[in-house]
Amino acid sequence: MIPDNIATFIVLTTLVSLMPGPNTMFVMSQAALRGPRAGIMAGLGIETANVAYFALTGLGLASMLAASAFTFEILKWGGVLYLAGMGLYTFVRSFRPGLEQEIVQPAHVPGNAHHGAYLDGLMIGLGNPKTIIYFVALLPQFIDSGRSVLGQTLAVGIIGTSIDVAAQWLYSHLGGALSRVMNRPKVRRWFERGLGGVFMTLSAMAAFYRRVA
């Protein structure tokens, strides 16, 4: 079940997982603003989306998605709008009054906040153009159609998900380290403004992604 070019797959997946983008930025920001647990929950949401894409690849639907410009554009623009909306919301929200009263220790963050981080992570994972291109254009290059596609997809899915989970864990802990200074209202406000700008910039960049023929 292991593809012959598995070493290349591992290197490529590691680079893609560590590369800064909507997924990694969201995980790190959630950990910084809500604590490491929220970052982990955001990462789980993203990994749920990845598992779904691995399943589509194993069922042969990823090739159909790659061939459908309309479906690709729907997913891409859904992700673009979601990122833009989240960026704008985060930026505008940084100007809210009474921030000092809202700041709590990560351990006291309500459970529904972590649940929201999971759902947001899921939506970003499903609509991230970089992720879509990876699964519909790059991943099939490592699958030998002359052998068991489902078995090979299962193998690379386990390996790829393990690598991505490690990357999400890393970014979650980086964000968790930042959470120690997020109790300062001025720092938190400027962090949220910067984060909102980053997400809107990523949204603009995602809008220029093109389907790989």
Describe the structure.
The protein is built from ten helices and no strands. It has 213 residues and is an all-alpha fold. The protein has one domain (19-206). α2 (22-34) runs antiparallel to α3 (36-58), α3 packs parallel to α8 and α5 (69-93) runs antiparallel to α10.
Give a quick rundown of the structure.
By secondary structure, the protein is an all-alpha fold.
Topology:
Blueprint (H helix, E strand, L loop, with lengths): L5 H13 L3 H13 L1 H23 L2 H7 L1 H25 L5 H4 L8 H17 L1 H10 L10 H30 L6 H22 L7
Helix pairs in contact: 1-9, 2-3, 2-7, 2-9, 2-10, 3-7, 3-8, 3-9, 4-8, 5-7, 5-10
Number of domains: 1
> Which range best describes the helical content: under 10%, 10-25%, 25-40%, 40-55%, 55-70% or over 70%?
over 70%
Instruction: Give the low-confidence spans.
Output: none
> How many strand segments?
0
Share of β-strand residues: under 5%
Based on Cα principal axes, name the global outline: elongated
Structural class: mainly alpha
Largest sheet: none
**Radius of gyration computed on alpha carbons:** 18 Å
Distance between the termini: 27 Å
Q: Can you count the helices? A: 10
Chain-averaged pLDDT: 79
The arrangement of helices and strands along the chain is: HHHHHHHHHH
Summary tags:
single chain; 213 residues; mainly alpha; 0% strand; elongated
